[in-house]
Amino acid sequence: MQDTKKFIENLSGAGKSIGVLTSGGDAQGMNAAVRAVVRMGIYVGAKVFFIHEGYQGMVDGGDNIKEASWESVSSMLQVGGTVIGSARCKDFRTHEGRLRAALNLVQRGITNLCVIGGDGSLTGANLFREEWSGLLDELVQSGQISEEAAQTHSALHIVGMVGSIDNDFCGTDMTIGTDSALHRIIEVVDAIMTTAQSHQRTFVLEVMGRHCGYLALVSALACGADWVLIPEMPPKDGWEEQMCHKLSENRADKKRLNIIIVAEGAIDQNNKPITTELIKDLVVRCLGFDTRVTILGHVQRGGTPSAFDRILASRMGVEAVLALLEVSPGTPACVVSLCGNQAVRLPLMECVQMTQEVQKAMDEKRFEEAVKLRGRSFENNLNTYKLLSHRKRNAELPRSSFNVAVLNVGAPAAGMNAAVRSAVRVGITEGHTVFAVSDGFEGFSKGQIKEFKWGDVGGWTGQGGSLLGTKRTLPAKHIDKIAEQMRIHNINALLVIGGFEAFESLLQLVDARSRYEEFCVPMCMLPATISNNVSGTDLSIGADTSLNAIVETCDRIKQSASGTKRRVFIIETMGGYCGYLATVGGLASGADAAYIYEEPFDIRDLQSNVEHLTEKMKTSIQRGLVLRNENSSENYTTDFIYQLYSEEGKGVFDCRKNVLGHMQQGGAPSPFDRNFGTKIAAKAMQWISKKLKEFYREGRVFANTEDSACLLGMRRRALVFQPVIQLKDETDFVHRIPKEQWWLRLRPLMKILAKYKTSYDVSDSGQLEHIVRLRAKDNSAI
């Protein structure tokens, strides 16, 4: 395979100049993208220029266009907004303005642009590219540039990255800033919930999204809101009555608060705006509930970027530079984007046209089509919301005679409760009786099994840890008693939510099928572990919350040294033998090194890391950050590394060490984990329903095939059910990690951004794809 691989060493940027600008509305994570473009650009030998104040700076020239150095992007990873400034620019919309911009770029030899902004900014960039040769001709005729300069700079290449908190750009699952905006919204909702509960209030929250309801929809999913109003799905006539009925029903169920989330662009079937005040008046008039309105406004744009946004932006920034290095004159302008967990390149104008089509469909009241055009991620969120929000009365429910048990196994992970809530409610909607098991398989063997109703899981999405209780005990120890409890409660299917122990448990239960018919039922496992060390999935519930805890702490630790002399921090993360948290946490917090078990290191590596840091500290860089996974090495312990760095760094920097410990496991789940847990649990319960029907014979359920015991995981671009038996070969059981782990490909990226020369396999980097292909397998999308 070697000959088909592409390595970064073979790509050179020598002689190229790249301009980087942020344009339009700011979004958290833009700085991480700028930092990645600058460092990757310099790494491949190109010159990189900051273009301050967006297109305005390009038109005005002068000091607005400055060459960037490695150090000039230091310490900007954790800063919200955009450090190089952004502006809405009227001048660039005129031909005259674009002519001045072209002159400023040619004078500095810039023919590659990296534009970070929304669809307006990217459309402007494409127009500029199309006009480029005409603009140069004009500049030659007016004598402002020579014929030779025009020939040297004959083509302008453009790569876009979408920075927009609204997530309103077609072709990309997530835009830079969306996840951070969700963090701000959820922080506010969690805070409001405590006051609303105290007073039995109804809160109407307005979130941003003039043309796109993504923020409203996902935050409604993540906090279990009672009602959501978005521009893509106007409520049907008579919605006012329906909404009030639902609110009063929830109150009757002893729910002490109601949350209604409204996108600022919410409309009714006749394209009339639905405002927060209108809803408040409606609730007060019809129900007499104490109602308050909160408009979140620019809070959503502010604050530090989340771990997800920093990683997304860093990956996109590096991908953008690779795209510029590989571009040929005939290639259309592209956007680098994320599809599932995969970086892709898409033609910019195809994405822009599709984004404009959504608006057109909405204007023409073709709302279902608008939802489809928004893409698979949006559609799936909407379907999950519909599934969970509309509680059917008993008479409307399909009645099945099936009993499904749900339990947590292993260590607690944030997002487990959201998954249990979703599983219980979807199970009830599907007509099953859902039993919840306390304390994992240990509780199962003791008969700690209770039927859960719809209201029993109210308010669970925002709770950290495991409300059901969880234990690491494996079933083999109590297999007789568990089989007996399965028989007593007539359990027809199992949904196990947990980490590596849950995976081992399912394998043990499958193995016991030959001895106990009770285990011949459909079983599904959802990966939930902060370590993200389960085979068959790229991501696990809980890992994102844990990463955010690590990144937030690293930010604080780095800040603690500001104003003091040069300092290096050695930080130990959890994860068992899996280096996911150390590596991805290192990438998100700008670490200089991350020591992990999967990439063996020796004293020479430690020595070169110390020397590397010593060299860095001789420049204007003041702080260093080194992460170490708890089990990365038996002998090179955190103390050893701390002492080594302290000794070798004498006179240049001093050292501090920090063991993060269980704070990585606690805390309220992040929006991503709430959403991911909710969606995969709903999908798993639908799979269980399908399997129950499939394996129902002569009055009972009998499932004994490999594909009746599966793990539901996210693989690159899709959610897939994989038989646990088949995942056995992919697993290293001694160290409790998968044999192959996708995130190891991110390690060279972390090293490059920390100024190490390294080999980086870029074969995976996108060929230009087309937007339509992304919609081929809708139902497996995230």
From TrEMBL:
CDD domains: Eukaryotic_PFK. PROSITE patterns: PHOSPHOFRUCTOKINASE (PS00433). Allosterically activated by ADP, AMP, or fructose 2,6-bisphosphate, and allosterically inhibited by ATP or citrate. Its main location: cytoplasm. ATP binds at residues 25, 88-89, 118-121. It catalyses: beta-D-fructose 6-phosphate + ATP = beta-D-fructose 1,6-bisphosphate + ADP + H(+). Its cofactor is Mg(2+). Its EC number is 2.7.1.11. Residues 18-323, 403-688 form the Phosphofructokinase domain. Gene3D superfamilies: 3.40.50.450, Phosphofructokinase domain. Pathway: Carbohydrate degradation; glycolysis; D-glyceraldehyde 3-phosphate and glycerone phosphate from D-glucose: step 3/4. Belongs to the phosphofructokinase type A (PFKA) family. ATP-dependent PFK group I subfamily. Eukaryotic two domain clade 'E' sub-subfamily. Belongs to the phosphofructokinase type A (PFKA) family. ATP-dependent PFK group I subfamily. Eukaryotic two domain clade "E" sub-subfamily. This is ATP-dependent 6-phosphofructokinase. It comes from Carassius auratus.
